[in-house]
Structure formats: C-alpha cells, structure tokens
Sequence to fold (81 residues):
Amino acid sequence: MYDAVADDYCYPGTIVLKNKLDIRDSAELAAFEAEVSDARADEEIPAGDLDFEHFNRLASCQPDFHPRAFSRRYGDASPLR
Fold:
C-alpha cells in the first residue's frame, strides 16, 4: 500500500494499490500479501546483498523480473520505476 493522496496506482480515495483480486480494503490486502509472502518463504533466497543496488542489477539483467514477481497480484507490474 502507498501513503499518497491521489495516486493513479491506487483505488480512488484510498491508499490501496489496484490489484487483480480487486481487494480495496487495506487490512484485507495486507492479510493477503502476508499469506502470499508466507507461502513463498520456503523458497531459496537468492545470493547477494539483497539491497537496492543488487535488485537494480538483477532488474537490468532480467528486465522482466519485476513484472514476473508482481503480475499475479497487480495488473500493471511494469519494470522498475
């Protein structure tokens, strides 16, 4: 969720990111995100420092990384912006 007043990526009048499940309640979306994150917690952690610089290098090598990581939940999972 974003903490912005008028964000094109959020539902009007909310701070809830537009998502494929059309969840408009911030608590419900947070619970869903926690469930999805928990389900993926058993996956192997990639090697590296896992800081923004590392992520940015990964994104430049794999430009589709961000869309692949988030497109199941959010329709406009464009490359890193």
Notes: The mean pLDDT is 75. The chain has two domains: 1-43, 47-81. The chain has three helices and no strands. Residues 1-43 form one domain.
